[in-house]
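Pilot study result, target chain (223 residues):
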Amino acid sequence: MRAKISASMMCSDLVNLKETIRIFEEENVEYLHIDVMDGEFVPNFGLGVDYIRGLRSLTTIPLDLHLMIKDPEYKLQWLGIKETDIVSIHYESTYQVQRALDWLQPFGCKRFLAINPATPIYVLEEVLDYIDGLNLLMVNPGFAGQKMVPSTMKKAERINSFLRERRKNDIIVEVDGNISPESGKRLREIGADIFVAGTSSIFRGGVENYRNNIRILRNALNL
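Predicted structure:
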């Protein structure tokens, strides 16, 4: 699978949002990563329903909806999920993980399970048949600009082995948090497929820098 970029929109400058989207379209950014936060599952409020609706009116770039909310299965209908979207539900956010993934199925989107840095890999075992992908958090969720939790790089290696051993090579691996060109290159070598890009890569500097930042990251990922 060709490496894909998911631009972290919580890092974007709202004043220049239209210009930012235009650049992303011209540079063929594959996804717009939307961090939906409720102030309960994570200690922050993030992008919500109106923001999602507004983005859809600006662009046809598919959305990568990262639901950092408690009991997400009861709120899916609020989001206007499209078949082209990725939707990540956190393992830690609900007592009924398999049910939450089941409730995503009618939307026709790609179903991802997100796991925090301290969540062990073995929790994936019983839901591998219900997911299209895995969102591996490289930082604790809730805030942009954090440093990568050091143990997550080795965890990414273990996940790659875990999936191969179970003949689940078709499961997409997304990495999210402090993805720079340098860390992205290493994670690509390990086997990651989708890279959430924020302040450590494409959102460095002003909007005038975004195009070049995307190209630098793209070159690092496509080895």
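One observation from the pilot: The domain at 4-221 is CATH 3.20.20.70 (TIM Barrel). A full batch analysis is planned for the follow-on phase.
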